[in-house]
Automatic annotation (TrEMBL):
It holds the Pfam family tRNA_anti-codon. GO terms for molecular function: hydrolase activity; nucleic acid binding. Residues 158-296 form the HD/PDEase domain. The keyword Hydrolase applies. Keywords: Hydrolase. It comes from the Bacteria. Its EC number is 3.1.-.-. This is 3'-5' exoribonuclease YhaM. One of its GO terms (biological process) is rRNA 3'-end processing.
């Protein structure tokens, strides 16, 4: 029997299915009774789940990254779909198909990598091109870069998401840079490529998406600067010259400032044209992707609005449902 994916669930469904545990919290209600709050995931998305009257013994039997067979029933609560669980069993991870559980991007990874190479290897600055080549000839780096998500929840949270995010920004920059001749094209393109490079080590993504210990303690901005500094030392072998200190300084600044504001984790504000451009291009792609996902994945098919989303501080207008639009057109 074919499995029921998360994006196929709707209000009132009876559930008997296997999912990956993306998050687990053991909580107590107002009466002091324990319950489990879970985030369950497959390749199509995630859904919240609760198991009432849980025990500490049960909670210790599995962790995020494990697989559960769950039974229960779906319901809409405060505008979001969730599963009220009645039973959970831990599954042997060797008896599941991993590709069913980690979210995948819709774009072809080989095609994305070909586009990334096309844009970056056409740069004219020999030092920046050599730097990029030092990354792209490293098979282990390429494996991680093409597998990593761009985030755990907020945007491009699927395998290959980091690559897709970077290539989208590169494509946008490639189309508009002719309008801004004062911006150093090669420097901006290299900064786009490297701005989130620390995420290949900040995140773990072999099973459930999570932060590594180093990712929690240091973060991808600092880790990105460290990775950059390591590769810069290797460019001398390709160019026969030391990497220009000014270029290195500007690239470091782009990495540490690309979040754009202190409250969003940037230790420095963007202070060069390329850093400012990077920040806004990065933010544009992240926001449009995240907002589009909220609209696309909203389980309330008949509503013209999404539920209020705390993370973005608003509801989003989805427009008139397609069926209703067709009825209106037929009546006109």
């Amino acid at each position: 029997m074919s499995r029921r994916f998360v994006n196929q669930l709707s209000h009132g469904d009876s559930i008997d299915e296997s999912y990956l545990v993306a998050d687990k919290q053991l909580r107590a209600n107002r009466q002091g009774n324990l319950y489990l709050q879970l985030e369950l995931r497959d390749k199509t998305g995630s859904v919240g789940a609760r198991l009432w009257n849980a025990t500490e013994e049960l909670a210790r039997t599995f962790e995020p990254g494990d697989f559960l067979r769950v039974r229960g029933k779906t319901q809409i609560f405060q505008g979001s779909l969730q599963i009220i669980l009645t039973h959970v069993d831990v599954l042997d991870r060797n008896r599941v198909e991993p590709e069913d559980f980690l979210p995948q991007g819709s774009q072809n990874v080989a095609r994305l990598m070909a586009r990334l190479r096309e844009i970056l290897l056409a740069m004219h600055n020999p030092h920046l091109r050599a730097l990029v080549e030092c990354f792209l000839i490293d098979e282990e780096f390429v494996r991680k870069f093409t597998s990593a998500p761009a985030g755990i929840k907020n945007h491009h949270a699927y395998q290959g998401g980091l690559l897709e995010h970077v290539v989208t920004i590169l494509d946008v920059a490639d189309r508009i840079l002719g309008l801004y001749p004062e911006v150093d094209r090669d420097l901006l393109l290299t900064g786009i490529f490297l701005h989130d490079v620390g995420k290949i080590e900040e995140l773990s993504y072999d099973r459930a998406f999570a932060y590594t210990d180093e990712g929690q303690l240091v973060g991808h901005l600092v880790m990105g600067v460290e990775i950059l500094a390591e590769r810069v030392r290797a460019t001398r072998d390709l160019t026969g010259e030391p990497f220009p200190p000014e270029l290195l300084l500007r690239l470091k600044h782009m990495i540490v400032s690309h979040h754009g504001a202190y409250e969003f984790g940037s230790p420095k504000l963007p202070m060069t044209l390329e850093a400012i451009a990077l920040h806004y291009l990065d933010n544009l792609d992240a926001k449009l992707h995240a907002f589009g996902r909220e609209i696309r994945d909203d389980p309330s098919r008949d509503s013209t609005w999404t539920p209020f989303q705390q993370s973005i501080g608003r509801r989003l207008y989805k427009g008139t449902p397609a069926a209703a639009t067709s009825d209106l057109e037929a009546d006109s």
